[in-house]
Amino acid sequence: MSILECRIIHRQGKFTLDVKLDSAGPVLGVFGASGSGKSTLLHVIAGLIKPREADISVRTRRVCRLPGGVWVPAERRNLAIVTQDPLLFPHLSVRGNLCYAPGAGGEFESDTGLHARAVLRLDPLLSRSVRNLSGGEKQRVALGRALMSRPDVLLLDEPTSALDSELAREVMALLLRVKTELKVPMIFVTHKAGELMALADDCAVLESGSVVAQGAPVNVLARPRALGVANLVGVDNLLRAPVLRHEPEDGVSILALGKGAELAVPICTADKGSKVSIGLYADEILLCLEKPAGISARNLLETSIESVDEIGHEVLVLLAVGDHRLKARITPAAAKSLGLVAGMPVVGVIKSAACHLLSE
Amino acid sequence: MMDWQAIVLTAKLAAITTAILFVVGVPLAWWLAWTRARWKFLADALIGLPLVLPPTVLGFYLLLAMGPRSPLGQAHEAVFGSMLPFSFEGLVIASVLYSLPFAVRPFVAAFSSVDRRLIDVSRSLGVGPVRSFLRVVVPLSLPGMLGGLVLTFVHTVGEFGVVLMVGGSIAGETRTISISLYDDVQALNYAQAGNTAMALLAFSFVALCITYALQPKAWRL
Hints:
The complex is a heterodimer.
Chain A: E1 4-12, E2 15-23, E3 27-31, H1 38-46, E4 53-58, E5 61-66, E6 70-71, E7 81-82, H2 94-98, H3 104-109, H4 111-119, H5 135-148, E8 154-157, H6 165-180, E9 186-190, H7 193-199, E10 202-207, E11 210-215, H8 217-222, H9 227-233, E12 237-247, E13 252-258, E14 261-266, E15 275-280, E16 286-288, E17 299-311, E18 314-321, E19 324-330, H10 332-338, E20 345-350, E21 356-358
Parallel strand pairs in A: 3-9, 3-10, 7-8, 8-9
Antiparallel strand pairs in A: 1-2, 1-4, 4-5, 5-6, 10-11, 12-13, 12-15, 13-14, 15-21, 16-20, 17-18, 17-20, 18-19
Helix pairs in contact in A: 5-6
Chain B: H1 4-34, H2 40-52, H3 55-66, H4 71-80, H5 88-112, H6 117-124, H7 129-158, H8 161-167, H9 177-186, H10 190-214
Helix pairs in contact in B: 1-5, 1-7, 2-5, 3-8, 5-7, 5-8, 6-7, 7-10, 9-10
């Protein structure tokens, strides 16, 4: 079933949101940096911002068609929103907040309501004033309040951003249970790739108000195809280098990294001499003291080590390759057994398939 | 012996003025608290004028505006058959304008202290804008609004200059308690003036105590 089908054009000052998005969910993740328009998109879907031009259906129910005169106001969309700030009603108790929505009192006592209260551990908080709750408790109450309104789709606007990392993990675990046990569809906006991987079934990446990528999170985020996405996800190595030649029979294109160094990448359509962008995770680079023989990897780069830094439980090795620098991530044990130090020559082993061509 | 007629008249004037300013002031303050209109400063300045303007200036213009040759004066005479200046109705109009900032400014402060996003949340939970206002904004801004009403009432009780200009001192019609005090002093009737002054002082002090006691204790989370 489709949880969202939308086409939205909305201008706000100099910013333009221009989005076309269809998703089967049940959890749609919207990923983007701050200022990418993801929060605006969610507020337009919620009916809290009226766009200039839009056609929006949520779970096949049309809630907006402008121009055309269809505009279902926020209170009749049945889409509860939970934001970064819990925004609890300060004059009401926890119970008062949970039972705020029309019909929430009945839902509160029903089987699904009881289940939600158990998942979110709300019962010990019921008689408390919301002003004395901790940050994590407040967000649990905010989620509970939204669920008690029996939303068709739960809208989540960076619900963990205001929490420290431990509480953020706790809230993510709760959201996973809300998804799997209570089966509430969600549209989940975040700038944290890990949260999307954990929760979303489908993921759209927003950049400067447009969708630049969409698909399963593992495909969109772990193997990014767009430079913007790679930047957002934090791909360790982003290279821009000219195409030296294509080798179609081998299925690779060769890039010039400078000073005679070459990099074989999956074959691309760029013209010879034009520059392409490559994303490469630091974990995908193997280090050898000597050039290995009989190996499938296409790239055996003779490099020298610029620096070796131990950070927590991993070691980042910076390699000089032609005019570029590559980060390789290995374990402290590997660094020790190879005796890696700055200035040492090593061979960087890279599968060409690990080099992701990025569109710009 | 105090001038009970003046006290009753003053209470009536203050009550009517406060009621009118509640009805007019709430929507006006709501608009002022949320609007992003560029000319909002103009509205602010106009409403705030009575705070700085000599009451005689306001009284003078009100006399002109209500005079028998003005549209307002003529309209009133056509409907009620009487003139506005030196009447109770004229006094009510003057009081409403003169006390406007004493109601509107506390209302604006009260509304501004309510996080607007609470209304968005309320609406997304299925509660319409009017009910959201009643269930969220009103309870959260109630102390500030009550404060504004008390302030309006007290300020109307204590006004002098505008009343003198617009209403004069007609017993039972326009002679309020502060005018009565002034008349007593003019008549060298110091004992009665002293009683009235002491009563006004006590009343004003108690009212201010109520206003400050009502000030909201940080509702914010």
